[in-house]
Amino acid sequence: MASLEIEGKSIEEAIENACSQFNLTRDQLTIEILNSGSTGIFGIVGSKKARIRVTVKEEPQEPVQDETILPPVDLSMEEGVNVGDPVNEAQTVLQDILTQMGLDVTLQVRQEKETILIRIDGDKSGLLIGRRGQTLDALQYLMTRILNRKGPDKLKVILDSGDYRNRRKKYLETLALKMAEKTKKTGKPAVISPLNAHDRRIIHLTLEKDKTLKTISRGEGQMKKMIISATRKDLPSPPSPESEN
Fold first, then answer.
1. CATH number of 86-162
2. 19, 26 in Cβ contact below 8 A?
């Protein structure tokens, strides 16, 4: 009997490759799984191809109606991840990612309703923050996608390192109040450089009780500018060109 080892990105793809190579149906082959493979982390780090050994059956068999079909194997994450518990899954996945990055850190993970809160502690945890938290935000986005990979987004992930989220919140609140005061004095709109949705919300919540001001987002994509402008007519008007001369 002819026998051959064949690889694929998944078991199903390896079987399809085998059927194509032998020009036979799946029922005419004896399939032995040698390695179920793994997509690794986001299909980037530590991925392994699935490998099977295929042998042609001596006598082709016709498909039967009551053939047992094995459920598909979920290879979206590495082995050992408990996908039924989001807290354990988040702990396992993130720890694996950070280990691959060469970081020796500890994680504190807890769940509050539909939010997974993760705090990263360690000597090099500050490396995960990046400029204006961009690295931390990117990792947070990926973790959110992983935990919601089987359906519409339900779980929200908040990732923190070195108490960055709290420090960033205080900075943005101070900035919002400073720019608001400037708008009140000059009557001119104040523009804050592009921010992500989370940071824009902090600006908005800081000023929402001040009915003399309004905040709007302007731009495209995830990063948009925040504009603070006056709503009351009795606030100073922008100086005319004549008065500036």
1. 3.30.300.20
2. yes
